[in-house]
Amino acid sequence: MSLTQGKVPLNPAFNATQVIAALNHLEASHLVIGAETNLARRPPRSNLPLLQQIIPDLHGPKLESRAVPSLNQVVLVENSDGRVDTESLRSLLNYNRLLQHEGSTNLDVDPSLSPTDIINIQFTSGTTSLPKAACLTHRSILNNGKSIGDRMLLTPTDIICCPPPLFHCFGSILGYMATATHGSSIVFPSEAFDPLATLKAVQDEKCTALYGVPTMFLAELEILTTSTTTSTVLPHTGFEHLRTGIAAGSSIPAELMRKLHNVLNLTELTICYGMTETSPVSAMTTTDDPMEKRIDSVGWLLPHVEAKIVDPLDRGRVLPVGEKGELAVSGYLVMRGYWNDEARSKEVMVADEEGKVWMHVSLRLYHRLRPVFLLSWYFRLGIYDRFRPKNNLSFYSDTHRPATKPS
């Protein structure tokens, strides 16, 4: 697997050890980093101590790093409003100077580019194991964003408020790519999640959609509940433009779903399911699915995506409807593999008799998490006879815009 150019977003909460490990695993040549990192509910953190562990002599005329031998250049973005002294850091390249130097350069499209080239190496969130570097292509993230926006019925008049971060698939693909492919606007309310800033952005920008994980929505609802009894003053108006959005990351309790409908007017809120390795969304509810289906399942497969439930001890055996097993997903959205990790890639990407590659959950992890895993797949994915009576194992795989769903 090779890569000439591509981006690798890193979690800004990474410490120096994690950043060095990621850079060395990727054999990265360039690092773009802010002078400060802003994290939720914490004061800004200077990144100079982190950089000094990578480059001991930040004031020297030349960048030298024993910790990351492949590193050729560090581009520093001044985002500290003067709180961090960056003028004397001669071994780093100032981002503003880079812009001035490249401002008159014509950026021609490389004719050798292919839709199946790797463009984004996305570290997994580490939910089931240590983070892994999933290789996603132009084709996979562009089409996944397009399908997500289609299912939300996005148009150029929509304005999406996106608190989830851009280093995660939630912000970069469900957020940016879904809006870019539909001409919609996108609002990033703050560098790190801030429930008050999010609600104000919705009001000020007249947003029609709001994204989040359940804990984000809970924090926003708490602001609205306590704003009349605390120093925070926020009018309960300005949410009438909201209609849709995405909730992902974990299941939405029924009571929370009702509050989002009634308080924030998110009557067309959708639920997404996926994983980083599938670019990331493989299944999603529609804007008019009944509330109980949005709570008890993750909806319908996206177009051009297939899924099956297999015996975890015999991945070639597809299980009948109602039996619990291991989920496998196939289609354009499956990653190219884990960067520089052929063994792990082969463990989860398995070709069937026809040569079609399926993304499986690791068998090793399956055994370790077996009790939780069985319940999680069974209940969250909605694998019930009463949901899909027509020989469908788990989801309905439609190929049309699901404004009207099949019976």
Q: How would you sum up this structure in a few lines?
A:
It is built from 12 helices and 20 strands. The protein is of the alpha/beta class and 407 residues long.
Would you mind describing this structure in some detail?
- By secondary structure, this protein is of the alpha/beta class.
- The protein folds into two domains: 16-102, no CATH class; 118-380, Rossmann fold, CATH 3.40.50.
- The chain has helices spanning 16-26, 48-54, 95-102, 138-151, 169-180, 195-205, 214-226, 254-264, 291-296, 342-348, 363-368, 370-380, and strands at 30-34, 36-37, 45-46, 73-77, 93-94, 118-123, 133-137, 159-161, 185-187, 209-212, 244-247, 268-274, 281-284, 300-301, 305-311, 314-318, 326-331, 337-338, 349-351, 357-360.
- Helix 4 packs across helix 5 and helix 7 (214-226) packs across helix 8.
- The longest helix is centred in the middle third of the chain and has 14 residues, at 138-151.
- The model is unreliable at 362-407 (pLDDT under 50).
